Amino acid sequence: MKKLIALICAVAGMLVLVMWQLFSADTNYYLITVIILILSMLPFFVSFEKSRPSARELTLIAGLIAVAVVSRAVFYLIPQVKPIGAVVIVCGACLGAKRGYFIGAMSAFLSNFIFGQGIWTPFQMVALGIVGLAAGLLFNEKAKRVPMAIAGFVLCFAVYGLIVDLSSVLMMTKDYSVMSVLSIYAAGVPFGLVFGVSTALFLLLFGEAFAKKINRMVIKYGILEDKNE
Asked: How far apart are CA 89 and CA 152, in angstroms?
């Protein structure tokens, strides 16, 4: 009960801050956007906590988050060529939408301790979380590599890019005209294409094998009762 009251007070405080900023003479769109992103993540994190995951499930999820973080770190020197999107997509397909979102969001947050935290972190958390969520809704543990690769390209190029590039819009311009916003998004297209293509390639090469490893652990140790939860 105390946790619920604290959560309601925190959400109410954030909403008041957003309303105050919206009607302020000097509106801070950074603050508003970050608060909205945090509020969008709360239902998933609260739902995951309420599901009371077992120690085995938490161990598996923590291990998969570590794999996602390492997969991004090992390609540190190659911009946008990162397997983290592929890892999150396979995790979402095997473990379900809710866990896919959690793994995606936490992977983005923790890997940014290597790549650098900033205004972009909440955008990346929500974007990668939605990638995992969508994978969980689109696929199951028997997903084939070609459909996953196609979905991986679309999710990482269009969905991830659309959300993350919004942070660039907020940082790079105060003139929120259609042309200025479109020009910033256009500048991010090559980076999005590289990320989307590399994700599709990683899924084609390793997606099914990685999914089999996860499914084997789930079945062997009876970790999840309902993968579609």
From this structure: 7
